[in-house]
Amino acid sequence: MDKLTGKLDELDWVTNPDETRSKIIDAASVLYARKGFADTSLQEISEKAGVTRSVTRRYVKTKSEIMRMIMEDILTSFQENLIKVIEGIDDPEEKLANALYIYLTVVDQQREKALLIYQKSSSLDKASKRRVMQLEVDVSNIFAKIISEGIEQGVFKMVDTDLMAFNIMMLAYMWVLKRWHFKNRFILDKYFKLQLETIMDTLKK
User: Fold this and answer.
1) Long-range contacts for 199-202 (Cβ within 8 Å, ≥24 apart)?
2) Mean pLDDT of 96-124
3) In which domain, by residue range, is 115 found?
4) Which of 32, 41, 102, 144 suits a disulfide with 165, CB 3.0-4.6 Å?
């Protein structure tokens, strides 16, 4: 840590890169949500994160790269938690229910970031936009695979798995986008239960 400024410096970047990266991403999320994508500078992100600008530059060259990192964090968190929970589960209904709950939980815990991705992804440069789009496809493929397994086992009816997977993802994002309304009626667990019933009514034979 820089003794004069109290900010994380090059040594922190070497010894604890994950913490430093997380601070940068969290700071960027808050500033982008508050000020907007175009009006936030890398210097402001560094100040908010408590990280020297030289360290911030080691992680990102542009704000678009930070947006990509935010999306990667959401996806990684979902994938890591999902693998732990569904390991050894063969029942596609149980597996899908677990996948939905984990995704909803991750999106809820990181709702500022999720909302930012939804609102601001059009402002990204082409390379970062393609990367974010691919990460969304990666998430949808997880759901699509579970649905396909259910169809093969005769548990789920024939559906367009790609379309159904994205429908499920949008239900999770609806909790973030319309939370101003639903939070007065539901807690997250109740929202999950009701949406799971809707999904299963569509899928089950």
Assistant:
1) 199/96, 199/100, 199/167, 199/168, 199/171, 200/93, 202/159, 202/164
2) 82
3) 64-203
4) 144
